[in-house]
Write a structure and sequence with these properties.
single chain, 485 residues, alpha+beta, five-stranded antiparallel β-sheet, 18 helices, 19 strands
Amino acid sequence: MREMRDTRRTTRNTRPSRPTSIIVLSVFYTFLFAAMLVYISYSSTVNKQKYINNNYNTRQKILLAQNTRGKILSRDGDVLACTETDKKGKEVRKYPYGNEFAHIVGYASNGKAGVESFANYYLINTGIDLAEKVSYDSKKQKYPGDDVTTTLSVKLQEVCCKALSSRRGAIVVTDPKTGEVLAMVSKPDFDPNTIEKDWKGFLEDKSDNANLLNRATQGLYPPGSTFKIVTSLAYLREHPKDYEDYTFTCKGRVSEGDNTISCYHGEKHGSLDLYKSFAKSCNSSYANIGLSVKQSTYNDVLKDLMFNDRLPEDFLYSRSKAKYKDNMSKGDVMQLAIGQGATAVSPMHMNMITAAIANNGTLMKPHVIKQITTADNKIVESYGGEEYKRLMSEEEARILTEMMTQVVEKGTASKLKGLSYTAAGKTGSAEFNSSKSDSHAWFTGFAPAEDPQICITVIVEDAGSGGSFAVPIAKRVFDAYFGIG
């Protein structure tokens, strides 16, 4: 009995007292509360622009009541968007270049788009100092919002607009070494100055014009022969040492079972190596190459080139689609190899792939904002070139550059041959329905080939041959960039 009492006494003594339990719980909840505060503070700091740009955040209205929306400027200081006050004292957003910068600069009423959207945080905030604020207060004026200087060139943007003219399509122009977006055009377009008046008409439009759609980033198109860049890279991955030994005899078409792939207009290219297959854009040869590449290799290349994945851009965009699926028929594999079938890509994505080739395999993150400044010209933020990731090796980029140079010198982009600058690129004629005669015209390339400074991607909807329609547009942009004509 005594032993039992001693045991019970010992057990009671080892139990934590009530005050001790309360202290432990208090410490735990205090730590939990502190952790939540730290997380909220961190999240608010990192995502402050995202939170303020949220349409449900009333902070935007408070800021706009205090500040006048800042200006959007070109790389050379031209005003692309500004706020003026009309005779009734109402603030009106003005776009001096109208339709020319419609999609890339965007609009700031009926929602927001373009630079007006993703630079909204800076445009509605002000960085002027206290003394300046006192000066505005004394005049009972609103503070001026910060100004956004873009990477955009008015000269190149105007050339792109005129080159596309009334045709549907898109053009993207970038600097492959820095990732700067120099121009971006999408047609059909709209006038941001009259967006409120025209809004209802756009929403009720039953045609396929889709004026508000930025075809450069949101448009998805069959890439056609521009996709042979991807197929070539997959082949190089499997044949790094003997790719120059590739041979094929083109008879104008190639069949595998019930599936037949024809070359453009049934042209017979004869005896080809890899370089000539690419330069002549031989569908038969590339269908043959596609069948020889392993599924795993193809999908690894697609992953490296960001297909079916997020892209490093601030604009609203559509993800490109391409995949070598399990149990895919040989006919579908041949379609994949030449950029047809279920494959779809945006012009901006194709420009990124091309820019990476021009930059020795490394993709610089595309950006359109160069600098944020206050109304009194103090720098708030500056943005330079930022490496996104390596898409391919330097050697692979070198070989693809050689192949793309041959397209100009001996192939389908010969309209860029013999100029004061050298160019490299790939044309494409992408069928978009069952009619073999209906195709989009593509070109993607860069110049000078030996030291790339400008990268351009062009798509002209329902225009036919890339060499006939897209290449001349690219030439006009290259010429303007290099000051020719």
